Amino acid sequence: MATAAHLEQLMRTLATDATQSNRFALYRALMAAELVVPLLPGNPERPGGLPLADDLAQEEGSTAAAPLFAVFTDDVGLSRWRDGGGPRARVYGYLLFPLLAEAKCAALKINPKGHVGGLLYGHEVETIAGATRKVGAQG
């Protein structure tokens, strides 16, 4: 499993050396990582359960046609984004990315308002989701 520190190092590397191999290394790490996903206020925390797309909190500027989501590498990042953190789910990337793709995610912010973060566009979310489906099909 990729740790928060490992993900942050990969994002730093990608920021200074945006090669395809560095990008794919981040994608692979995101698939393996347990990510912190903010839920809408009033939703219960789901320690082991996969949230529904309707449970996910959306980023400012999100629309029904182009939803923007956020994920965090740890609880501290979530607390920076939303005072007190609020309800959340911990979800492995290989489960989360297909959910985001099905929700037609236009962009995914990683650690918004954090010290180290990133942005994946919808086509990148779909690429990662496709990779998880391919790996899952190979079993």
Explain this structure to me?
- The protein is α+β, with helices and mostly antiparallel strands and 139 residues long.
- It has one domain: Trna Endonuclease, Chain: A, domain 1 (3-Layer(aba) Sandwich).
- It is 43% helix and 16% strand.
- It contains five helices and five strands.
- The strands form two sheets. Strands 2-4-5 form a three-stranded mixed β-sheet. The chain has a two-stranded antiparallel ribbon with strand order 1-3.
- Strand 4 and strand 5 form a beta hairpin.
- Helix 4 crosses helix 5.
- The two termini are 18 Å apart.
What is the structure about, briefly put?
By secondary structure, this protein is an alpha+beta fold.
List keywords for this structure.
139 residues, alpha+beta, Trna Endonuclease, Chain: A, domain 1, three-stranded mixed beta sheet, two-stranded antiparallel ribbon, 43% helix, globular
CATH architecture: 3-Layer(aba) Sandwich
Number of contiguous helices: 5
What topology, given as strand order, has the largest sheet?
2-4-5
Report the structural category: alpha+beta
Q: β content, as a range?
A: 15-25%
Helix content: 40-55%
**Biggest sheet overview:** 3 strands, mixed
Count of strand segments: 5
Overall mean pLDDT: 88
Q: Point out poorly predicted stretches.
A: none
Which value, in Å, is the CA radius of gyration?
A: 14 Å
The level 1 CATH classification is Alpha Beta
Query: What is the 3D form?
Result: globular
Series of H and E elements: HHEEHEHEEH
As for the CATH topology, it is Trna Endonuclease, Chain: A, domain 1
**Structural domains: how many:** 1
Distance between the termini: 18 Å
